[in-house]
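I am writing to request your help with a piece of structural work I have in hand. The matter concerns a single protein, recorded as an amino acid sequence and a row of backbone structure tokens. Could you please explain, in whatever detail you think fit, how the structure tokens follow from the sequence? Thank you for your consideration; the sequence and its tokens are set out here:
>
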Amino acid sequence: VTLSTVGVAPRIQSLAKDAPPSLRLALSLHAPNQSLREQLMPVAGKKWPLPALLEAVRNFEAATQSGVLIEYILIRDVNDDDSHAEALSNLIREEGLQCAGVNLIPYNPTGAGMSEGYGTPSDARCKRFRDCMRRLGTHNVTIRFSTKLGRGLAAACGQLGLRSVSGLPS
């Protein structure tokens, strides 16, 4: 069983103590630094800052003897250039994460995201990001192009049907 989380650090700490050995964790990170994480994930980014989150992840990895899978949505001109790939590789290495792998997911458009100017990077851009991370020594970096399935129905990975950003905390 794999549990996916936006990074609720206190719950990850609890899981480190109570999780069955077969439980795996997938962390929706989407940013290699605190400021970009707060921009992309304002609630989770502010409530559970990277230092506390990464400490919880390390504790989970130590307790379960299993690396956490990092999920990273690539958004054109927001978090998809070589500097972001380098920063993400450095974060994984410098924080001492075991890291089961990194799933790179091309952004699937939503009305809310389009209103913010978010777009999908080209396949070539996604491959360049992956290749940059691999060159820097990050293992098991994959691109999930299959996550494009269901876009027309707003049912692809990460689409969840949000149509506007009105009413969201800023």
